[in-house]
Amino acid sequence: MGAGNTASTVRIVALGGLGEIGLNLMVLECAGRALVVDCGVMFPEERLLGNGVYIPELSWLAESGLAFDAVVLTHAHEDHIGALPRLLRRFPKVPVYGTELTLAFARRRVEDAGTAVAADFRSIAPGHPFKTGPFEIEPIRVTHSTPESVALAIRTPAGTIVHTGDFKIDEAPVDGERFDTARFAALGEEGVRLLLSDSTNVEREGRSGSESSLKPILRSLVARTRKRFFLSAFSSHLHRIRQVTEVSREMGRRVVPLGRRMAESVRLGMETGQLSFPPGTFIEPEEAEFLEPHRVTYLASGSQGEPLSALARLAADSHPRLHVEPGDTVVLSSRFIPGNERMINTLVNHLYKLGAEVIYGAVAPVHVSGHASRDELAEMIRLTRPQLFVPIHGEYRHLSRHLALAIEAGIPERNCFLLEDGDSLVLTASDAYRGRPATAGRVLFEGGELEDAALIDERKTLAHGGTIVAVLAVSMSTGTIIAGPDLVSRGLVSGDGTSAHMRAAREELRARLAALEPPLRAGDMRLKDEVVRTLRRYFIDAVGKRPFVIPHVMEVP
Ligand SMILES: [Zn+2]
Predict the structure, then answer these.
(1) What pTM did the predictor assign?
(2) Cα separation values, 38 from 72, 106, 197, Å
(3) For residue 439, what pLDDT is reported?
(4) Dist. CA 145 → ligand 1 center (Å)
(5) CATH architecture, domain defined by 211-359
């Protein structure tokens, strides 16, 4: 046992969110006990991966031998709570802490997943610290795109660690719950050992602006809409749902949540008091059919172009009961997440074709980010004055820029650590250094099942490189090739398979196979390897594609 194992040594281990936007999961350990902060998912950019989501690789948690005292959730977003059902399946007894709204969403996630555990949910609130294992945790109010978001001040034997969660500094929050500047400043006075801070918006200069700045814009858009008004936003964005509901009420419109997720968010918002409107404000789609179009606002999920969403169905004019028409306005009130642009653009084009006016970020300011821009990030560093700094929540370039920002803000370079998923940082009373790495990664989860990495690779290869089947027959008596190879391809070269490339590839393969020593057998790995290698090499060189090669060898008497 070295100095690194004393009871006052704390290790933080990043299992997700440091190298991507999403999958957030951080472990803090001390003397064999541990705490998990957030447990999120990430949505794949490539739709060919189906409707699956990525979750963090969780095997290390079990292998670490640590005793887990708590999972603490900072807020209700999927990239912070979505993988909770998987974690609870492995650790059914671990208590889950979060604010009331966060727990309402988390509970729903666990129920949806059918996780047969009686999860131990414990409600927390800003200003009420609680103890778990060797840690004392104080939730601190921050502003973000979902209500009741908190940062965590975690008192450890190695000093106070501040984990910001996701935040921005909104001077005029929709729910009136302000970012607790004074508390962060007080912690700074007291001494913060380590700051872990959200890097998502570090590429943006200035400040992100207040969510409430959208209200006049939404009001003018609703006012000039002759028929139905559609707002598409993330279903957890209760601030935005609240604002569009307020302006809709002012103009005598009822509000209809479309789709299961949106209806569920509105219901949870009403139950927790985040959406407190008189009865009759929100109505069912069936009820709206009896109202004139200018009396209805619809809330639709699918602002990222998700193919099965309400908005996608409206754009494709395949919604069972609703048809977008001239006089309608559709507002896409969210950022276009990189990777989704093409699908969103298609959606916008279709909505225009149906005659709607479509409003999105490029034509009007209909979205405000929930993450801190550079000036707010610098303010967080100024307030907390940490001794050590680790940027979190971002791709490598975000982490790297945030690190540079911290150095600019006066934190010595040797005290700034750029950690990636799987990295760890050890804090002793007097020292800080990189610790042993942990197994980290992501696994695809679809329809309740884990998909293995090989299957995902296979789908990617099929989509990007096409597929080619080589059929040949070997004689059981002589062990030589007596028919083929014949090649059949899909999605690789155009035409009926008689192209020059197919002919050349077959000749090349024939020559290669002729060089193999007989006897050849159907199950012969030499034969299969040669087929795969030769065809793959040929098509990479000739057309720059890496096809999925299937050798099909028959044995004939
Ligand atoms: Zn968030």
Answers:
(1) 0.82
(2) 6, 11, 14
(3) 92
(4) 7
(5) 3-Layer(aba) Sandwich (3.40)
